[in-house]
Amino acid sequence: MGRRINGEGTICRRKDGRYEAKVYVPTTSGHPKRVSFYGRTRAEVHERLTEALAQAQKGVPVPERNWRLGDYLDYWLENVIGRNRRPATHEQYEWTIRKYLRPTLGSCHLNRLSVPIVQMFLNQKIAEGHSVRKVHIMRMVLSSALGRAQREELITRNVARLVELPKYEKGEIRPWLADEAKQFLEAAQSDPLYPGFVLLVLFGLRRGEVLGLRWADVDFVKGEIRVRNQVQRVGRQLYQGPVKTKAGQRNLPLLNLVREVLESQWVRQETRRESAGDAWIGGSRDEELVLTTRSGKPIEPRSFVRSFQRICTRRGVRLIKVHHVRHTTATLLKNLGVPARDAQLILGHSQISITQEIYQHDDMGTRRQSLEQVEALFRRTHQNERCRQLLSSTPVVVDTSTSSRLWLRGQDSNLRPRGYEFDSESLKQQIQSVRLCIKQRARAWLIGVVVVKISRQPTPSSIAIPPSPDRPVGKRGSLEPKA
Predict the structure, then answer these.
(1) Which among 346, 29, 390, 400 is positioned nearest to 203, based on CA atoms?
(2) Domains of the chain: total
(3) Residues 89 and 81: beta-carbon distance below 8 Å
(4) Helices in 204-255 by DSSP H: which ranges?
(5) Closest-CA residue to 205 (of 261, 171, 251)
(6) In 10 A of CB 469, how many CB atoms?
(7) Containing domain of residue 77, as a range?
(8) How many helices (H) and strands (E) does the chain have?
(9) What does the buried/exposed string (b/e) look like for 262-294 if buried means 16 or more CB atoms within 10 Å of the residue's CB?
(10) Residue 427: strand, helix, or coil
(11) How many CB atoms lie within 10 A of CB 457?
């Protein structure tokens, strides 16, 4: 055998009887790394060595370190999610990893994670009684992390996308009707958070957007409300930041009812500021929130929900989720005939399909009203057809004396069958068809008369010539030919 080429790799037999192959391959960091493969036979390690060299020739690097899934999830949370996602999203991902993924799958090697392993893990969670929605969230978080690992060329495929789960069926959402929303606003007038409930119902704002509205975002001169800020609970502290998406940054008209409520809130808050004195911690007037506690602090989102539920329970209003009030506003806009594009801009959705498919609902009343409009079209068609049938079968009774007198006076006799009223448009069409039929019959009659008259005229061969006295007359009055 000739001398080995540099970079070809080596195969040797270990003392324990196994074979080991070693070769230098490029890594994800750009530096070469010596990797080893083990097997019971020389052919087995040679096959793996050949495969590694083929991948290196294609430019596919190998991981610089042999990641375990738990360690990579920590790295992903800190360097990817923590820097590019909102704090609430980071908190949800961190809780899912700490509670479910790390205890079971954290010790698995990242490059050895397979579809059966992930499938058994998710099936076990369903068997333990976790909801299908929660298991879908587990798969979603794991798939997002493995998708990042695939882009970093640490793995070749995302096994979380290949597993199968039961389909998640969303529960039916029954938003308030207009009367129920009106009943709730009437019941909430005495509540300190009444301005927030008005914004919630009339504009369909999110809970965080209501609690994050600042006085700087309310323009009483131009009559506008600028939705830019929101308040959320993240961990153990309240977080103020921009709204969820760019589409959520929207300007809304300052309606008269909203203007009155906000002006009253301004006076009420100014009174609280004066009475609190140095204990007021709300900050400057422009950056101050519209809804605050007695000391100027932001309202806790959970306190807002509890107040909403308390009002519904005490006043007998059908209890729904706070976020479902947003569905109520979207549905009312649809029922009032507002175009879907305008509803999308009012609600701050990034896509119009979200507005139509998720937030706008219908009920049996709206379905009945829509189908009754369709039925009305066919009812009119059926009535017109019935009129034509009655017209052809009902004899026309005409008062000849009256009609003749009107005709002699040069007036329209307006002959109609007694006991029935015609549609003017259909009557015109029938008169036109009768006139056309009369013209065609008259034309055919005239042509027939002309044809008959022409056929009866004598031809030149049948014209009789008077006999001459010099020539004898033959039989049938014909002339005898000369001898």
Answers:
(1) 346
(2) 3
(3) yes
(4) 207-211
(5) 251
(6) 5
(7) 69-162
(8) 18, 8
(9) beebbeebeebbeeeeeebebeeeeebbbbbee
(10) helix
(11) 6
Q: Is residue 336 part of a domain?
A: yes
Residue type, 293: T
- With beta carbons less than 8 A apart as the criterion, state whether 251 and 224 touch: yes
Q: What are phi and psi of 83, to 5 degrees?
A: -100, -20
Strand partners, 62: 27
Which of 8-12, 38-42, 274-278, 316-320 shows the highest mean pLDDT? 316-320
DSSP secondary structure letter of residue 97: I
d(C-alpha 139, C-alpha 134), whole Å? 9
High-pLDDT (> 90) share of the chain, %: 47
| Pure H helices in 58-177 | 69-76, 82-84, 87-96, 102-105, 115-127, 132-151
Q: What does residue 473 show for φ and ψ, rounded to 5 degrees?
A: -95, 130
Whether the pLDDT of residue 465 is over 60: the answer is: no
In a domain, 372, yes or no: no
Q: Which amino acid is at 159?
A: V
Pull the structure tokens for residue 91: 């908190």
Which residue has better confidence, 97 or 421?
A: 97
Task: Give me the CATH number covering residue 183.
Answer: 1.10.443.10
